[in-house]
Amino acid sequence: MANVTVTIDGQKISVPKDLSILEAAKLLDIEIPALCYDPNLEVVGACRLCIVEIEGSKKLETSCSTKVKEGMNIFTESEKVVRIRKGIIQLLLDSHPNDCLTCQKAGECYLQKYAYEYNLNFRKHNSAMRPQLIDTSSPYILKDDSKCILCGKCVRTCAQVSDRKVLSFSDRGYDTKIICDEDKNLEESSCVSCNRCVSVCPVGALIDKRQINKLRSWEGNSLTVNCKSCQYGCEFEIKSKNNKNVAVVAKSPSNGRPLCLKGRLTTELLYVDNPETPYSKIDGKFVETSWTEALNIEDVLEKINKLNADKSSLGDD
Ligand code: SF4
Ligand code: SF4
Ligand code: SF4
Ligand code: FES
To answer: Which residues, given as ranges, of the chain have pLDDT below 50?
Structure first.
């Protein structure tokens, strides 16, 4: 791949010509704020937070969807860029609940991070807030539409697995929201609780319910492990606090990894000190279940028990 030379914030770099400006900036350790971009997902250029100024161009360009070109002189924090970027973040804050104190996402939320970086606050205003539509129907996922910033990452990642495609955008303008199937709750929908959507959501609109109240993002330690349930080896983070493993969190499904509930529950059983009861969805309803049923290993256990019984009866002879 041929290279091109560009200048970003005064630093010259030679990069492959198929890179986006955002990717090229990353090579210089310049992090351009981005809410809808994810290296594993189709680029949609929806949030416009990643805008940059390019010398000679009147229009600001979204750096996630604009490729580098020979000789480009790019400014990621020019006065114009910062003014418009701050406006975008402020608009998001203005339609967002002021809930960072108790939000499980605090500390890892990108809206919170950028508001801090650009010194912006929740403020009193007369415009409408997003309605609080909280879906608590799933024991695995909490979906809070009032915190959704409509980046669409959940929709794109869910659709990457062909038999899922549960999520989509519904309605228009201010009423736009993310729905499951034809606007069902998570329990009634075809969601398989894989938590792909949770792993990519940049804010607290999709939360791993089994992590809630166990620890804040900055507490304790975390260890990345690979799932042992199948050849994909999806990645999970084991969260520990006070020398106890308290939660398992699905990591972003990179490298074509599917993520699934069985893999996540197996990882919980293997690593978490006091794993919570598992649930299975039966006829559109979540029901508490045993670990053997949840992991679908009843046959295997039966066989092992039979082999053990056979062995001990041979020993008796
Ligand atoms: S989603 Fe982010 S900005 Fe919103 S309440 Fe939670 S931590 Fe705060
Ligand atoms: S948990 Fe998985 S199947 Fe359910 S909505 Fe999220 S990505 Fe789709
Ligand atoms: S739920 Fe999260 S990932 Fe999905 S559109 Fe809203 S903010 Fe983005
Ligand atoms: S990150 Fe580029 S438009 Fe959202």
So the answer is: none
191 Cβ below 6 A of ligand 2: yes
Per cent of the chain over pLDDT 90 is 84
Report the atom number in ligand 4 closest to the C-alpha of 22: 2
Domain 3-77 listed as CATH 3.20.20.190: no
Verify whether ligand 3 is closer than 6 Å to residue 153 (CB atom).
yes
User: What's the order of all strands across the beta sheet hosting 134-135?
Assistant: 134-135, 141-144, 206-208
Q: Is 189 in the pocket of ligand 2 (CB under 6 A)?
A: no
What would the two tokens of residue 21 be? 């400006």
Domain boundaries, the chain: 3-77
Cβ contacts of residue 87 below 8 Å, gap of 6+?
none
CA of 147 to the centre of ligand 1 (A): 7
